[in-house]
Structure formats: C-alpha cells, structure tokens
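[Solved] Which block belongs to which protein?

Original post:
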Amino acid sequence: PQPVQGAITLQDVGFRYGSRQVIRQLNLHIRPGEMIGLVGHSGSGKSTLVNLINRFYDVTEGSIQLDGIDVRRLAVADYRRNIGLVLQEPFLFFGTVAENIAYGKPEATRQEIIAAARAAHAHDFILRLPHGYDSVVGERGQGLSGGERQRISIARALLINPRLLILDEATSAVDTETEKEIQKALDNLVQGRTTIAIAHRLSTLRKADRLVVMDRGEIVEVGPHDELMAAQGAYWRLYQAQARRAEEDAHAAGLVLAQDQ
C-alpha cells in the first residue's frame, strides 16, 4: 500500500442523528501537514465533525476522503492506525505509566517509550513517581494531575507517529508553567502532521494555518487568523469573547493571589 500522505477532503458531508440534521453540506480540503483549528460555540458541530473524521460514526451524506480514498472503503483498524488522538479527558487505564504510553504500540521498546515521553515533556515528572515508568496509575489516571495525564496522552500519540492528529484541546485549569510544558509538547507533536484541533487556546488559534469557523453544523468562515480578524465576522466575535474571558480569568486569579499574600 502507498504511504499515507495525510490529505483530508470533506465532500458535501452531512450527518443526521435520528431525524436531526447535525452537520450539513461541509466542503473542505486539508492539505498534508496543514494545521486546521476548528472554532465555534458549543453545539456548533465541531465535536461531531471530529468524530466523523475519526470514524466513531460514518457520514450519512457525502464523503470524507483520506488521500482521495473514501474512508468507508478502508478497514477501521487500518484507518485509525494513522490517527493520533489527544482528547480533553485522556483515557488512561489501570496499569503502569509505560503501558499507558505504549497503548497504541504494545511492542514498543523502553527506549522508544522514554523518547516519546521526553518529547511530550513528561519524562521528568515520570521519574519523580515512586517507581518511575513502572509506577501504576489507577483507572482514568488517578494519582496524576490533569496536566500530567495530558502529557502522557501526547507521549502516546508521539509513539505511534501518526500522519493525522486530532486534538481536542484541554481548557482545564492548569498553572502557567504546566500550560507552557503542554504547549511545547504539542509543538513537538504537530510538527509535519496533518492536524485538526478543536482549538480553545488563543495561542493555537494564532498558530493554525487556517481556521474553520462552524455554526449550527455548517462552515461559516475559513481562513488564517489575521484575515478573519480583519474581516470582523463570526471568528472576530468569538475571538473577542474569548480574549475577554481569558482576561477575566487572569483578573480573578490575580485577586485570589492577592488574598493569599
């Protein structure tokens, strides 16, 4: 088989859930190695679109193609081997840290696991655990902080070295230092891969090659950050609202700090 390039095409994609049309008439071509940020209010269809690309469901109209081939013609397991998933709530199971990182590639050597953890900025905190890579974490990653779970899930994606990456960015309240570590880990991860991010972080929005703005299951705007800001349309409004929220959060955090002093 040809090596996967990682071009994704949505052609007249529609999805109904029962009698409800959740996604309608989506058309978009994502180039290999391009980073796309999906933006929109909650309920705009971003998560449904990601689930369709990941084949948790299949489209009810039109088609999604990988390198020009309708994904429904590919075996689900083969198709998913090309996809790295980093979700808001990373799924960790009861087992060692090493086993959790090697989830998608059980035959990985310890060296490969450590290399992935280093690139994910997870190596240092793993070494501080009682048994390092052999430390056991509970179901859902009990015993680890949100930022640590996130980085283990990034290490897991790095290890399988996928052509496609789906990121549902965590907005979880992590401190600035952890935020920086996660950002560096994500920068390593997206390098040279086709990335579709449900973007919540302002920094990701600025970095994406193009932003796709969704509203009520439709694509309403597509373009780079600067262009969409200049247009002062749907994206501009969303961005302003988010920058305001970020400022309010920072202000609230500042007040808490002031009270603690």
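(Second protein starts here: sequence line, then its structure tokens.)
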Amino acid sequence: SSAFPDRAERFYFATGISVFPEPNATTPTAKVALFETSDISDLEKGFRFSGKFLFGDPYELSNMFECPDFFLLSKEGGAATLTSGVAVVKASSMTTRHDYFYMGSYNATTLNVEQTTAPVAVDYGNWYASKTFWDSTLQQRILFGWIGEEDGDYAQRGWAGVQSIPRVVVFDDALQTVRTYPLPQLEGLRGAPSAKIATPTPIANDSCVELLMSSPSAPRAQHEIQATFQVPASSEFRVELRLLQYNIGGSYTSVSVDSNMPNGGALWNNTDQPGGDYKDFPLPGTDAGADILNCSASCEADRRCVAWTYVRAGFPAPSPPFNYAPRCSLKGTLPSALNPAAPCCVSGRPQSAWISLNRESSGTTGSTAPWQGRASILPDPFDSTEGRIKLHVFVDHSVIEAFMDDGLERVSGRVYVPTASTAIANGVSVCSVTGAQESAVQLQEASVWPLNSIW
C-alpha cells in the first residue's frame, strides 16, 4: 500500500518463531520476528535477523506462531496511515490452532506493535493460516483463510482442505474491534430467492419456522441465508438457524446464539477446569481475594476467554509451563468436565452471549463437536429495549461459514452429510428454543438464495 511503504533503505520480512526468553528456560514463547535487508534483490541470502520483534506476549501459551500478517486499518474506512490507523498483527497459534487479531499502535522506532485493545479470534471455528491483501481498486483489505479437515478420511472424500470465501476486514471504532464480513461482490453468485420472509413473524417458544423444505427438487446444499431476529434484552433466549436439514424432526446442523454461555457468570471454589488453556500468567499473591478478581476480570476483558482458573499459592505444577503459583489460567474452549475436588483452585466463567456451530444432530460422518465462542447482543436500532441479531451464513456442501452482526463474530466448520435415498439434507429453518419467553423472539426478515458456481 502507498500508505505504508517499506523504507527505501531497509526492507523487512516477518516470520513466526519460538524464543526461549531466558538461557535456562524450558518453555519457549511465540513471537513475530523481523528480518531485514538493504538489498531486496537477494531474497535467499540478504535477510538477517534485525534483533527486533513485531509482536510477542510472554504469557501466551503458544510456543510458535505461523503465518504472521501485519497491516493497518483505518478508523474511517479506506486506506490507513501510521498516524491515523490501527495496527493489526494477525498470528496463527500452533497450540490452539486458531488465528488471532492483536490490535494496537505501531512504534516506528522499535518496530513493535503495542497492544491497546483486547485480542480477538479471527474465527471461532475450523479456520486457520489466514492472510490478507490490500485491494487498491476498491480500497479495502481482503482476508482468506484455510478451512481444513478434522479427521484423516481424506482419501474417502477425495480432497483435504478448502479456501474460505473472501472476507472484508474493517475496524469498528465504536466497539474497538475488528469486523470481517463476506465480500459484497459475492452477491453476484445469487440466484432468484428460494425463500423470503419480509414481515415480522413471532416464533413461539420451542418451535421453528421453515424457510426451505428438504426435497430432491429443492436447491442443492449450496446457498446463502440471511435472518434477522429481535430478541429480549432482559431475559434468556436462544435462536437457531438450522441448515442442511433433512425434514422437520430429522438431522440438521445449526448456527445458534444464546443470551448466555453455559454456566455463564458461575464461580466455583475448590474446583478446577482442566484443559483449553491459551494464556497463563503470575499473580501477586499478597491478597488471594484480589488475585481471584484479577483473574476473573482478565477473562472478562479478553474475548477469547470462555473460562478461567485461579491456582492458589503452594500448588505449582511439577513441570513447565505451569510450575509457579499463584497464577491465572485463561481458557479458549470449554473444558469437558469440572473437577469439584481440587483445593488448588477457584474457577469461573464470564457472563456472555454465545455463538455456536452445532453438529451433534447433523448426521455427519465427521466430527460432531461444536465450534463456539463469545458474542455480544447489540441493541435493536428501532427499539432500544430489545436486542437484534443478524445471522449471515454460506453453505457450500460440506463447508459452513457463519457471520453474526455484519462480521462482529465468525464461526466456520465442516459437516459431511451423506445423501439420503429419496431426499437430500438441504432444508433451512429458523427456531426459538428452550429458555425463551412465549413469542419473545421475533423473526424480522429472512432470505435464502441458491448460489451459482464461480466457474
């Protein structure tokens, strides 16, 4: 970009590396290192380590970053500059197998990005090794990612991995975070609408409104869906967009939004939540109550965090990276089970809305584990006493990419549904499920479009 050129006398190359922070350290730290050269004509031999790091967090448990990316986002749209833009480092963690955006300000002296905003997951699902480029014609940054497989049945399926649809990356100054939403030009692939609801329609508790019936004559499982809901701002709810549905009551995959995550806001004494750690840091230890509040607040502020555990002083683990206490462990996935007989620990979860790609009822031949993460319920722009949720989903046979509220949250994954003998699983429904008040959820509008091939 002309807004951020390399220095004429020096060129830099960024790569993910593992660094042992101390001579006797046994656990490496993931960093993005800068290599430099004054002669860009010799890419093989010219670059040497500059001694500087673009980014690194000593408490992140990833021991290696992959596919680092660095770019600027404008707060007003269009091209950004070093003085007006938000500096973003995108890094892929080999430990968690997720991509993250780290946002802040760029220090031109140290060549380092100093975080000023909590990091966020690029996508909560099976989405990795992403890269961006600057579209100079339309003045926008475009993001692609890799949607891989979750098992080893490559040969039976005939392929392994796919590139995601292109996404536009913008900085939301009001919410101080990154949005990534589908490239608007994808609308050119739409056929005539298969289904459309333009009139607000209440959805009774534990019921569904069918948008597209599953049948051999229905469009194939290659479509785009948009649905907007009005939801209660002060009571529990869950809305679902059911996809790849094989008749009502049959198999389906769903993208759901809940008003609160499982056990959101809970606090458990003498309880551990094993697994899922992505960040682990020491605490002062002078006041256990203050340490617990510190750990809880750290999780609340970090959108990647879905659970936390405080480890009391006197309970260090026998080996790195957890061989110190007191400490706080932040977790990016919900542990499968709690250990309620653990005097070492106090555990809890933030209170937060929750988006999920659910596959347990899908009939898939692959993994049925959900992909999940935290979400925010934005106020309805037409009724501040209610909330509004917009879901935008692309289905391309086994690939599902879901976006909430114009890309504020993202979750992607794979679902392998075998073809049935008399019909295929291509139905679409919207549902309000257990927890909502009677008719408290209203479908404002919904559309389903078949998608043509790009070829």
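Accepted answer:
You had them paired correctly. Confirming on the second one: The first helix runs from residue 154 to 157.
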